[in-house]
């Protein structure tokens, strides 16, 4: 967070003994801006903690522990339609005003899921701080769940969260948080936010996610052993940087570029023991992956996943990285380009396959074009590169990529709230 800090609140343990107490401390500084410093503590949350513009939330690293409270499911008692700021439940026991919740059904999730804060409770109805995001039909098992991001920011600017340990306690969650609406740490339509020194694990959902954001900086963070992806920049997020961060042992990808995540740098990061090390897909363009490690993932170390021709992946550079011993037992290549893709550069990387089951170092699908390889070292790969001649080029593609390379027009797709 840049600029002058106008107000600092250094909390004592009895001033930070609940999610509500921490939120009240943030509420007390949000108008002026400033910093809330948490003490050494171990607190179980019954709601997510909301960040504000011009405010930093800071802890004491491994000695400041926030644990997710139980995630319980509450069935809705019938159909309820889009835009209503309330829902009818079979029971409201255990729910209270101020708690954060998710509402969804069996038919679809994504951005059809509603994340909201409870504003009132009246019998078996609860009020929400904004309208629900979809029609929830009674024949599609609509439900409310106490699934929520542990720390989140919506429409914020010039903020930070630093040096906090997060325990998602997924064994005590009846349902996962949807990836479009939440993660253990989640940002939405936000700008100029720094996340640093976070140590997170075991969330029923994703470790870190942000949607429709710009100028986000993730530094020295760990997002491990989550049921979803470890780190997930999504929905058009632009001009972001990930440095010295880790996503290991996650149920999906260690790092997942989502739709139109572009002009992003991933530098000196590690992704091991996930389903895929890194996944790149729909309109994910002008990204730089540099000095990273993708080792020991079940699938490919890097997967350029299938996309429609209108959503081609292009202008990606992977350089000075180690991609090794992935694809066991699935027998994938270390790098697989399965998409309609063009202008991809792989240069100066160490690419290795375990000697027990040699396979291609780089596998290039029929729809890829202008893939350029230079200065890579291959160990145990058979062949080093498997591709049709048309998929390769001897001429290095020329493009700008990564954090700081976005021209002004690269931001115009983002909502006004992120401007």
Short overview:
With 419 residues, the protein is mostly beta strands. The chain is built from 1 helix and 37 strands. It has 2 domains: 8-68 and 148-391, Pectate Lyase C-like; 73-145.
- Percentage of residues assigned to helices: under 10%
Q: How confident is the prediction overall: mean pLDDT?
A: 94
Assigned CATH class of the largest domain: Mainly Beta
Class derived from helix and strand content: mainly beta
**How many structural domains are formed by the residues?**
2
Q: What form results from the Cα inertia axes?
A: globular
Oligomerization state:
single chain
The biggest sheet, with number of strands, parallel, antiparallel or mixed sense and barrel status, is: 15 strands, parallel
Using the 3D structure, state the CATH architecture of the largest domain: 3 Solenoid
């Amino acid at each position: 967070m840049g600029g002058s800090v106008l107000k600092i609140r250094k909390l004592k343990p009895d001033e930070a003994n609940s999610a509500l107490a921490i939120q009240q401390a943030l509420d007390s500084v949000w108008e002026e801006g400033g910093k809330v410093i948490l003490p050494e503590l171990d607190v179980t949350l019954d709601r997510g903690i909301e960040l504000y513009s011009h405010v930093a939330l800071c802890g004491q690293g491994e000695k400041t522990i926030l644990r997710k409270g139980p995630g319980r499911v509450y069935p809705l008692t019938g159909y309820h339609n889009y835009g209503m700021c309330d829902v009818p439940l079979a029971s409201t026991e255990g729910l209270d005003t101020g708690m954060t919740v998710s509402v969804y059904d069996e038919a679809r999730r994504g951005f059809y899921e509603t994340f909201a804060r409870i504003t009132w409770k009246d019998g078996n109805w609860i009020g929400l701080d904004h309208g629900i995001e979809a029609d929830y039909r009674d024949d599609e098992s609509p439900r409310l769940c106490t699934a929520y991001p542990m720390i989140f920011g919506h429409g914020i600017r010039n903020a930070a969260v630093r040096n906090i340990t997060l325990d998602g306690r997924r064994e005590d969650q009846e349902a996962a948080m949807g990836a479009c609406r939440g993660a253990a740490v989640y940002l939405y339509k936000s700008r100029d936010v720094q996340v640093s020194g976070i140590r997170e694990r075991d969330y029923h959902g994703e470790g870190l996610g942000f949607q429709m954001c710009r100028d986000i900086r993730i530094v020295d963070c760990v997002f491990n052993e989550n049921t979803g992806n470890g780190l997930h920049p999504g929905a058009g997020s632009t001009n972001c940087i990930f440095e010295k961060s880790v996503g290991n042992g996650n149920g999906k990808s260690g790092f997942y570029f989502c739709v139109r995540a572009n002009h992003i740098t991933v530098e000196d990061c590690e992704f091991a023991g996930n389903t895929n090390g890194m996944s790149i897909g729909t309109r994910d363009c002008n990204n730089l992956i540099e000095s990273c490690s993708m080792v020991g993932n079940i699938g490919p170390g890097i997967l350029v996943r299938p996309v429609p021709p209108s959503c081609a992946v292009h202008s990606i550079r992977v350089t000075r990285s180690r991609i090794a011993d992935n694809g066991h037992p699935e027998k994938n290549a270390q790098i697989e380009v399965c998409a309609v893709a063009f202008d991809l550069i792989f240069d100066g990387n160490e690419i290795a396959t375990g000697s027990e089951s040699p396979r291609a170092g780089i596998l290039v699908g029929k729809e890829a074009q202008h893939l350029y390889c230079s200065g890579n070292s291959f160990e145990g790969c058979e062949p080093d590169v498997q591709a049709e001649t048309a998929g390769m080029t001897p001429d290095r593609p020329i493009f700008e990529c990564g954090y700081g390379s976005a021209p002004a027009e690269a931001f115009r797709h983002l909502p006004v709230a992120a401007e």
